[in-house]
């Protein structure tokens, strides 16, 4: 198998505040236009998962993540604009962080804000779409599946 035909590894970083609101960024992407997504990005070669979570979150939001746990793994295969892509996404729920979120890359990110888990924004980037559609444990830590809790 050729190297470029292998899946890439991405991370999604789900950060909740004390009001069951998740931090989302409105990003402009050449392949999908303006879409909402949590902070995240690509795992670098020789990088530990938690280091990637911390780096991507700091680069995109200026927040300092202290601790996070692996919450879900999703296989994202898509053909946006006739470009085949395959990512294995590791989705993390942040346990502790500090700071106030701000836009760190204004050319890529148009808006950043906290949104209620009951009313997720549209359109979502494909990776968070798959995350929520695959019905993981709810991010509020209720122990219920997302669709039985906030995803109703």
Describe what you observe in this structure.
The protein has 152 residues and is mostly beta strands. It has one domain (3-148): Alpha-Beta Complex (Nucleoside Triphosphate Pyrophosphohydrolase). Helix content is 14%, strand content 40%. The protein has two helices and seven strands, in the order ββββαβββα. The chain has helices spanning 49-61, 126-133, and strands at residues 8-14, 21-29, 33-37, 40-42, 64-78, 85-98, 109-116. The relative contact order is 0.24. The model has no long low-confidence stretch (mean pLDDT 92).
* Number of separate helices: 2
Could you tell me the number of beta strands? 7
CATH architecture: Alpha-Beta Complex
Proportion of residues in helical segments? 10-25%
CATH topology, by name, is Nucleoside Triphosphate Pyrophosphohydrolase
CATH homologous superfamily - what is it?
Answer: Nucleoside Triphosphate Pyrophosphohydrolase
List its salient traits.
152 residues, mainly beta, Nucleoside Triphosphate Pyrophosphohydrolase, 4-stranded mixed sheet, 3-stranded antiparallel sheet, 7 strands
Brief digest:
The protein has 152 residues and is mainly beta.
Write the layout of secondary structure elements.
Elements: E1 8-14, E2 21-29, E3 33-37, E4 40-42, H1 49-61, E5 64-78, E6 85-98, E7 109-116, H2 126-133
Parallel strand pairs: 1-6
Antiparallel strand pairs: 1-4, 2-3, 2-7, 5-6
């Amino acid at each position: 198998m050729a190297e470029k035909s292998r899946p890439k590894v991405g991370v999604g970083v789900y950060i909740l505040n004390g009001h069951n609101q998740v931090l989302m960024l409105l990003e402009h992407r050449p392949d999908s236009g303006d879409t909402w997504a949590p902070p995240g990005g690509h795992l670098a070669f020789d990088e530990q998962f938690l280091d990637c979570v911390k780096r991507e979150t700091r680069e995109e939001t200026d927040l300092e993540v202290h601790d996070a746990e692996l919450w879900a793994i999703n296989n994202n295969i898509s053909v946006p604009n006739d470009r085949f892509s395959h990512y294995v996404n590791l989705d993390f729920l942040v346990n502790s962080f500090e700071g106030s979120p701000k836009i760190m890359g204004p050319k890529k990110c148009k808006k950043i804000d906290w949104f209620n888990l009951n009313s997720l924004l549209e359109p979502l980037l494909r990776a968070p779409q798959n995350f929520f559609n695959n019905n993981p444990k709810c991010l509020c830590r209720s122990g219920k599946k997302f669709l039985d809790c906030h995803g109703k």
